[in-house]
Amino acid sequence: MKAILGTTVLSLSALLSTTAFAQDTTFTINSFGGAYETAHRACIITPFEEETGVSVNVVTAYSADAFAQLRAQKDAPQFDVIHFSGGQEIVGAAEGLLAPIDAASLTNAADVYDFAKANLAKGEGPAYSIAAIGLIYNTDAVSPAPTQWADLLNPEYSEHLVLTDISNGYGMLGFLMLNQSQGGDLNNIQPGLDAVAKLLEAGALIVSTSPEIQQEFAQNDAWIAPYASDYAFTLRKAGLPSGFAQGAEGTPASYITTNVVAGRPNTDLALKFVDMSISPEAQECFAEALRYSPTNSKAELSAEVAADVAYGEEGVAGLIRFDPAVIEANRTAWVEEWNKTIAR
C-alpha cells in the first residue's frame, strides 16, 4: 500500500507540475515556415508541449518581419519567445524589447559554446543553431575538394561558379568572406567587388535564391557556390552529388537565436523553451533534419551529419560573425555598389 500510495503521489505531483503551466496559458513564438518549421516542431515545439501541457501558438514570420511585429507590439507584446537569424536580437536587446537571461536559469547553458551565449545578461538570447557559410561543390566534378575562399578565383572554376546576390542574407555573408579573403573588411568592400567583377568577366553567374542554385547544379553544370551548409544537404537529397567545405580563412555564420520577450507573464515557460532549444537532443535533431551546426558541446552527430556542418571545438573555432549592426547600417550603400559592379 505504501508503494502504491507513493507512486500515486508522484504521478499526481507530475500531473500538477504539468497542468500548472497549462492552465489559461497562451504561449506564442515565431518560426520560419517550410522545412525549418517542420523540424522546429519535431525537435522542440512538440516535446515542449508534451512536457508542459501548454499549446504553442506558432506565427510563421522570418526575422525581419518578426522584429517589425515585436517593435509594433512594444507596449503589449504578443510573442513569448522570438527567433532571429539576422542579428535582430542585438537591436532588440538594446531597445529593451528582450528580457535579460540569467545563465543559471538554463540547465543546458554550461554546455553551450561561449560565443553562442556571450550576451545573455544583455537580453541577447543564445544561438541554438548555426548556418555555416562555406563552399558547396559538385563532388563528381571538383577533386580535390576546395579548401579556402581564395579557391573561388581558381580559373578552372570560372565558368562553373555560382554567386548569390547580396540581397540574399547568405549571399551577403559569402560576399563579405570573399572580400575579407582579398584583404577587405567591413570598412572597405572594394576588394570583394573587384574580385566579383573578375569572376563575372571569367564566366561566373549570379543568382538571387537558393532554388536557382539547385537549378544551376542540376541543369547548367555548376561546380561550386559559396552558400550555407544546409543547402549542400538539400542538393544531395535532390540526388545531386554535393559536398560542403569550410574555407581555411574562416567560416561566416548566421546565428539562429532564441530570445525571451520582455513584458510577458510567461517568463518561466519562456526560459524552459529556450533551455530545451539549447539542449543536445534538440540540436542533434536539427542537425539531422536540416544540417545546422549545434552550439551545445555535448551534441553528438554521426560522421555523415558531422561532415556537412561546423562541428565540435575545432569546427566552430573557425566561425566568424560579421557584425549584424554594421551590415544593416551599410546594406543600402553596399547593395548599390554591388549592383553597379554586376551591371558592368
From TrEMBL:
It comes from Devosia litorisediminis. CDD domains: PBP2_polyamine_RpCGA009. GO terms for biological process: thiamine transport. Residues 1-22 form the signal peptide. Keywords: Periplasm, Signal. The keyword Signal applies. The lineage of its organism: Bacteria, Pseudomonadati, Pseudomonadota, Alphaproteobacteria, Hyphomicrobiales. GO terms for molecular function: thiamine binding; thiamine pyrophosphate binding. It comes from the Bacteria. This is ABC transporter substrate-binding protein. Pfam families: SBP_bac_8. GO terms for cellular component: outer membrane-bounded periplasmic space. The keyword Signal applies.
